DNA sequence: ATTAATAATTGACCGGGGTCATTTTTTAAG
DNA sequence: CTTAAAAAATGACCCCGGTCAATTATTAAT
């Protein structure tokens, strides 16, 4: 029969994640060293790897939790009626995702291209993001010739693309919001766009 | 005055990249170790880092060259008239990009989110991809309410998204081509879409 | 040729992630 | 209690990317 989880286990795990969060607050995600984590937690190095498969797994958990807290705030918004509303809702999350290059890399690695057998925390947040956005888009003022879920997936694709381009020195003259706005208008309002473009061409 | 590049330099560099290509042929990109590269090239470890900034820079060059060879073939295609034509042209490249998780990770790191100060080989290929596809889409049978370049960028975003999702065990029941086809139909043919693609995807 | 300046190479060394045989602690059974 | 099995923790060790002061090779000028 399987034994219950020991109190000790939970305590050690908590000490490790607490230490990690503390280090991140001081040095950023990029600056985290496992040796420093175990030192502050007062355990041996091997103990860390008994609790987390590797460094990435810890990052997955910590960054996933952070993304979740942004999604909590996004979830309670009323469905956006315009692209600008949508951007207002999503941008805080996207800014966190691009707070550090390392963070964005970790997110990319875990978002869909998850090496792990089971789905991890960050991958979960992507699914949740899809669900929240798809809910918004059902019966909204945007195109409805394709499923809301497909639209939500497209929003994710364009969000990631926008962040990636903005990390590049050559492309980051355009603010994230502006770039994403252009993508989302073309994606969510293909009709109104042509009208706008046409009238612009006429003028 | 700046001195000319020594013959020795070119020779050493060639020996290093040759060794690297050989190792990749045997063990894959993931299996490449710098120690093995320098051993086969018959030079010291430090020499490698005098020629390449780091391991990623070598990968950037090798993978970038590979992508370029796919683009060479893509470039000579006649502009696609249908989504299927487009997929036929692009899929070989996308399959290379997803041949190894590690390769896809390297590509993502270098595509736009380039840490490097200057633009690297892989980032160049992304720009080239954009240019080729934008050229195709100008005056094509697809939507023309937005610029061809924006359409090309969207194709890239959806390509990356499709590959990422396909690496995830949970999502890879849908073939890459099928998934991308759905995205591209919605992106490039927002009008015709409504009835056709939706019922097709369900079937 | 000699020499001074520059370029290329070397390999011992370091940092930090990850492993694993061994030891210590906890738990359940007699 | 005692004890045997399971769980948790330990830290010396390995792997491998990356560094750098010292050495060797090349070039240009006299």
TrEMBL record, chains A, B:
The keyword Nucleotidyltransferase does not apply. Residues 10-70 form the HTH tetR-type domain. Transmembrane segments: none annotated. InterPro entries: Homeodomain-like_sf (IPR009057), HTH-type_TetR-like_transc_reg (IPR050109), HTH_TetR (IPR001647). GO terms for molecular function: DNA-binding transcription factor activity; transcription cis-regulatory region binding. The keyword Protein transport does not apply. Keywords: DNA-binding, Transcription, Transcription regulation. Residues 33-52 bind DNA. It holds the Pfam family TetR_N. This is Transcriptional regulator, TetR family. It comes from Roseovarius pacificus.
